[in-house]
Specification:
Radius of gyration: 22 Å
Strand order of the largest sheet: 3-2-4-5-1-6-7
CATH class of the largest domain: Alpha Beta
CATH topology of the largest domain: Rossmann fold
InterPro entries: P-loop_NTPase, TcmA/NAT10_helicase, TmcA/NAT10/Kre33, TmcA/NAT10_N
Organism: marine sediment metagenome
Structural class: alpha/beta
Keywords: Acyltransferase, ATP-binding, Nucleotide-binding, Transferase
Protein name: Helicase domain-containing protein
GO molecular function: 18S rRNA cytidine N-acetyltransferase activity; ATP binding; tRNA binding; tRNA cytidine N4-acetyltransferase activity
Shape: globular
Strand content: 15-25%
Length: about 325
């Protein structure tokens, strides 16, 4: 059994490397549940960073939470995240959390030893079984164990210690902002151009959609802008980039900055406040009938979303809503 503290010289050396390369790194900690919790808590103390998210049903992990719905995770940004596999491997939560890691950040995964994972009794397994099914082992976990074994990752094992470290590029990471800048230009065009030409922005998670909304709003200083989303926390990136562009101070709970203000979707439709342009972030999380009502009332509107991480509403957004737009708006972009 290895008693090394996880945050030792190896971690100290690799964190600046992944930050320089803008590389998102997976750190796997495997072993007995209590041992993994001890290592994770020690690591959190050493990292000492405000942008940390811990997903766990256990109160033994510092500042842990276990959101009931996946959309409560989406749209946020964290430097370090921890997923407690002992609370159950839920693919949707797992995938959603991975999309919140900032460039140069760590995704820390707590699991039993990989050799035991294939036959481990996953607490989440019964959630995915149909009536009368009594399967003891998860095929998802079996595949995950194989993928983790065959991939280059940081791995600290209770029985084996540190596994061979992956090589991180020595070159500085370069972020291409060409597509994001194009989105900003299109948002401005929608806000200042002819009415009834809705704009749809779709991209994989972490590509800067919310940031683009904030940057565009900052350039539209003469416009009254409303932004809505199912979760206000998903708009942190938008407001942060808006504040940086406008040179104003932003606190995490502020729902209005200058000419940009947040209103929840249900409040928006009940009160129907006036604005020059409406921005809808994480639109796939909002039921299609509500999106159509927004279109009926607001002539200049931008929808931004990813379909990854959504189920029911997301499929409706992909199929029904896009089809509706194509039928009723010839100039959709």
């Amino acid at each position: 059994m290895h008693d090394y503290k996880p945050f030792n010289s190896l971690i100290s050396n690799i964190l600046p490397q992944i930050a320089y390369a803008k590389h998102r790194q997976l750190l796997l900690i495997t072993g007995e549940q209590n041992w993994c919790y001890q290592q994770a808590n020690e690591l959190l103390k050493q990292l000492c960073h405000p942008l940390v998210k811990v997903l766990s049903t256990s109160g033994e992990l510092t500042d842990s939470s276990w959101p009931e719905h996946t959309h409560q995770i989406l749209g946020q940004e964290f430097q370090y995240v921890i997923y407690d596999g002992f609370s159950g491997l839920v693919p949707d939560k797992f995938a959603a959390l991975s999309g919140t890691v900032q460039a140069g950040g760590l995704f820390i995964l707590l699991l039993p030893e990989l050799a035991d994972l294939q036959h481990w009794c996953d607490p989440a397994l019964e959630t995915f079984q149909s009536f009368a099914q009594q399967r003891q082992h998860s095929y998802f976990n079996q595949r995950l164990a194989g993928l983790l074994t065959n991939n280059s990752l940081l791995h600290f094992s209770q029985t084996e210690g540190w596994q061979p470290l992956p090589k991180v590029s020595a070159e500085a990471g370069v972020l291409s902002l060409t597509e994001q800048q194009y989105c900003v230009e299109q948002i401005i065009k929608t806000a200042t151009g002819r009415a009834n030409r809705p704009l749809l922005i779709s991209a994989d998670r972490g590509r800067g959609k919310s940031a683009a909304l904030g940057l565009a709003a900052a350039k539209l200083s003469d416009k009254n802008i409303i932004i809505c989303s199912q979760q206000f926390t998903a708009l942190h990136s938008c407001f942060k980039h808006f504040a940086a562009e406008r040179g104003c101070h932003y606190q995490a709970q502020q729902k209005q900055l200058a000419n940009l203000r947040y209103i929840a979707p249900d409040q928006l439709l009940s009160e129907q406040p006036q604005c020059d342009v409406l921005l809808v972030d994480e639109a796939a999380a909002i039921p299609v009938p509500m999106l159509i009502k927004m279109l009926d009332h607001y002539p200049r509107i931008v929808f931004a979303s990813t379909m990854i991480g959504y189920e029911g509403n997301g499929r409706g957004y992909t199929l029904r809503f896009k089809r509706y737009l194509e039928k009723h708006y010839k100039n959709i972009r």
